[in-house]
Amino acid sequence: MHPNANLLFLCGSNSCRSQMAEGILRSLAGDRFDVKSAGASASYVHPMAIRVMDEIGIDISNQRSKSLDEFIGQRFDYVITVCANDRKSICPFFPGKIGQRISWGFEDPADADGDEDERLAVFRRVRDGLIQNIKQFLQTHPN
Asked: CATH fold of 5-140, please?
């Protein structure tokens, strides 16, 4: 029996992108991965992230925001950053032992402007992009 691969999703504040990615991977892959998420600093799980995940039947309301400091000293088979590739994004670097680093560039939906519907549209777009990337990751990394 092959042991579960350890995977860490990273973003700036661990409130939206990495939280959604953690919930999506757990939902799609079951127990194939020991999945965690963290940020450069801990904050909170954004209510709109919880809401758009609930729309697709994935409950992340019991997840908590974590700083990557909690995981220093641990080994991960995969570390996937989900930060935008722009100058204003704070994207943490995990200094520990890693099998493979992967970078997916997603805007931070917490920075979205507009009314509630416009902001929710950004959260949904990021969620759907994460689903697409995670499905592709699972096809190429069957573990």
From this structure: Rossmann fold (3.40.50)
